Each structure stands twice: as C-alpha cells, then as structure tokens.
Inverse folding.
C-alpha cells in the first residue's frame, strides 16, 4: 500500500536547524497533497504544514521558521526547520494524500 517514508530526524539544540525528508510512495504530481504533522508526548497530533500544487500553508506555531518544499521529479517532500524550540520536540509524520508515514523523531534540547 501507499506509505511515505520519513527520514532526517535527530537531536538538535535549541536555535539550531534540521531538515526532514519524506520519500513518497510512487510518483507524485502537483495534485498530490503532501503534508507534515507532528505529535508530542501526551498531545494530539497536530498539523504543521502542507503543500498542494504550488500552494503552501503553515500552522501559526511554525510560520517563519519552517519551510515545506517538494520535488515532484524526485517524489519527495522536505521540511526545513530553523530556529528550533524545545516545544518543537515531537514525532514528525509525513502525509501523502490520505496515507501516513511512520514518523521520525525530532528532539530539541537546550
């Protein structure tokens, strides 16, 4: 079945940067909805950002710090995270249309 695969998670200090990658299952087009969600311990999974065609959207908590990009030719989507905060610590999930990846852990420490 369709399941994107995330990678790039790890430990980073507050204020640092990290880039996550998501390899889509099969080819993707501009019509493919690609999105990032995250879930911190004890919290509900929350929307982070999405890319639909050439349109992007961001949660208020990450605006100005996170950037989603996609490369349809490479069947991939990326999440560039900068100025990371402790509250960004979570498992980050990639969503390809209605299909979820298994997540990658991002831990921000000070």
């Amino acid at each position: 079945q369709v399941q994107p695969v995330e990678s790039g998670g790890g430990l980073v200090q507050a204020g640092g940067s990290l880039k996550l990658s998501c390899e889509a299952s099969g080819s993707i087009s501009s019509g493919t909805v690609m999105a990032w969600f995250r879930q911190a311990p004890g919290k509900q999974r929350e929307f982070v950002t999405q890319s639909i065609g050439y349109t992007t959207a961001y949660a208020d908590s990450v605006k100005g710090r996170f950037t989603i990009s996609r490369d349809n030719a490479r069947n991939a989507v990326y999440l560039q995270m900068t100025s990371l905060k402790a509250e960004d610590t979570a498992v980050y999930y990639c969503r390809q249309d209605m299909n979820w990846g298994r997540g990658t852990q991002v831990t921000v420490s000070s």
